[in-house]
Amino acid sequence: MGFLDRLLGRPGSPSTTTTKPTPELDVTELDDAEREAAASRVAEIQQSLAAGEGESWELHQEAGILHERLGDLDAAITEHETALAEHTQYGESYNRLMTLYNTKLSQSSAAGDGEGINAWMSKIDELLATSKRIMRENY
After folding, report:
1. Which residues contact 34 (CB under 8 A, 6 or more apart)?
2. What are phi and psi of 28, to 5 degrees?
3. Cα–Cα distance measured from residue 128 to residue 86, given in angstroms and rounded to the nearest whole number
4. Are 21 and 27 in contact (CB under 8 A)?
5. Residue 84: CA count within 13 A, CB half-sphere
6. Residue-wise pLDDT tens digits, 15-68
7. Is the sign of the CA dihedral 101, 71, 35, 53 positive or negative?
8. Domains in the chain and their CATH numbers?
C-alpha cells in the first residue's frame, strides 16, 4: 500500500493492521539509570549552549537525539529544527526530522486530527524545500 493508503487508514495498510510504533524511531525503553543519565546530559548541553561553548548546532542535534530517547518528541523536533537552521546540511538532524515529522503525521492521522495532518504535511513540505535548497547550494 502507498503513502496515501497509510495516511487515510485504508484497509490492508500498515496503519490499520498494526499498532506498533514507527520502527525508524529509536524510542526504546530506558531504565532509570539511563533516563537519569540522558536527562543529566540534556542539562549539561543547555548549560553549554547558554555559555556559548562548543558548536551550537552539534549540541542541539545531540539534545534532539536525547529527547527522542526520553520520548519527548516535541522537544526533539525543536532541537533538530534549531540544529538544521544553524547548519543546513543533510545529516542526522535532517534525517531524524523527517522520521519525527512522519511519526507525528501518523499520530495525527490515527487520531483523525485534520489540523494536525495539515500542520505535519506542511512541515514535511518545508523540509523537502530545505533539501532542494541544499542540493542547489552544493551544485
Report:
1. 69
2. -70, 150
3. 17
4. yes
5. 24
6. 443 333 443 555 568 899 999 999 999 999 999 999 999 999 999 999 999 999
7. positive
8. 28-138 (1.25.40)
